[in-house]
Every structure is written in C-alpha cells, then in structure tokens.
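Researcher: Re-running this chain for the archive, since the previous output was lost when a drive failed. Same request as before.
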Amino acid sequence: MRGEFDRFTPERFLPDVEKMLGAKLNGYACAFTSYVNRVYELETDSGDRIVAKFYRPGRWTREAILDEHDFVFDCADRDVNVVVPYELTDGSTLGFCGEIPFAVYPKKRGRESDFETAESLHRVGALLGMIHSAGAAHPAEHRMLLTPEEFASRSLHRLFDSGAVHPACGRELETICLDIMDEAERVLPHPETFLRIHGDFHRANVLDRGDEGLLAIDFDDMLNGPAVQDLWLLLPDTPSKSRRELDALLGGYTLFMEFDEATLRAAESLRAMRMIHFLSWCAIQTGDRNFRATFPDWGSESFWRRELGDLRQQLAVIRSERRNFRL
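Model: Regenerated structure tokens:
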C-alpha cells in the first residue's frame, strides 16, 4: 500500500473523483506540497477550482476521518470560518479510490496569518475559542486522547518496534521519554475535561482572507485533548516567557470559551509528547518516496544523539516551567 501511495497519480484517481463528485473534470491537476497525504487542486468543466485530499492509507480509519468531517461541520454550523467537504453522490463526504480514502473541498485562497501584534493574536484567539466551543459539544468517538499513555507511550512503543532506534541510544531514549511522561502526568488536566481540538493549530493552518476574516484549515490531526494544546503552538516561547502574547490570545479566546490558566503548565510537556509522536510517525514512513532525502541520516547513532539532546533539553524546560510559571 505504501508503494501504491507513492505512485498515486491523476490518471489513477480522476475517474473516481468525477464519479463520486458527480461533476466532469477537465484533466487539470496540480499537486500541493504535502508529505502526509496527497493533495491536488483540480478543475471542473465549468471552471470551478476544487481540492481533493487523499488520506495516507492506514493512518486513520474511515470512522476517524468522518470524526474530522463532523467536527468541521459542527464548526461551520456555529459560523466558524472553515472549509467543509462536499457531499458526494453516495451521500457521504468520504470517497475511495481503491483502498485510498479521499474528500473533496472547494478551493479557498488566503495568505498565511501574521500573529505579531496584539490585535492579530486577539483575532486568532477568538477563532480558536469558537472552534473549541464547537469541539465541546461532544467527544470524537474514534480519535485518540491526548494523554501520556495513549499519545506518547504508544508512540514510544511503535518507535522501538520499528527497529529505528540505534542500540547505543535505546536505554537513554526510553529513560528520557518515561521521565517526560511522568512530568506530563503531573500537570495535564483530567481527560474528563478534554474536548475536540484542532491538534495542529499553528500559523500555517490559519489563513487570512481579508474582509472574510481568518480561516482555519487542515483538521487532519484533530483529537480529544486539553484546550492548551491548540494555544501553545501559537506562542513564540514558553508560556512563562510569552505573557504579552497569552494575554492577547486569551482576550479573544475567552469571548467564547472559559480557559483554566493553570493548564498552561502542561504546555511544555505537550511539546515534548509531540516530539516523541513525530519520531514515531517518521519511523513508519521510512520506505516512502523522498524520506531519505528529507532525513539523510535517519537511524544513525549521530541522528539519535541529536534527538536525545533535544529531548533532554526539553525535559529541563518542562521542569523549569513547572517551577517558575506564575499565573
């Protein structure tokens, strides 16, 4: 399946997209830069530009992808500026090209948002508050919980099972990751307080459409987690060193949702868990096209020494932030 995804070309998918969309396509297909999925801009015979997103096989179940779509529709129902997938000819929002799932969206243009001023941070905070207001309606049944056990521990097991970890670094890697998970357990809020969150809410996933406002895109990594996960990605530094930016963000956010500032202590643990998760994800993609070009020394002792250094440094930041953070 991995090799099939690498060889996935317009000749393969255009007939299926036409059939499921119920519209004739003119053959135009422009690939977007996307490593995880395959994303193409297409054009109908009537001149409408659309975007087809083909999900990486094995990453999500059908039900998990539909959880993403449900979340986006819930946001749209609350007038949040998002891009919802088209309903296809079978009444679903999810089609298949062989075993590869796909969804089709209208194309929306916009520029990457600039979150440098208090006003711009207030705006994106308000957008996030609206998203979380929709996310709080009910959990995503088929998406993971952002807990140390489900998010980080499973990632660590997959990493070791892949054989990617250099033998000289395995014991130290396990020790540091377990220490990170212990720290996370101390500061993360209880899962009963979790809500559906975007999961990858950084500036590249927020487009500025001028008079139409900010547009949130790419809910692919949505999951059940604490609200703070979507906040720390917008900060220039740790929460304790980003008070000005936090005040602006929360000024917009709390127009729509309450926020427990004590959860900011969990931000650096969440950052470390994200680092572990990313390494685990890389470990199962090593056979993909261009992987070695992106990670030329993947799996070598020097690679893992660098990663250990980064994780060790992040563990120190976690402990410092927990001691020094003041509300």
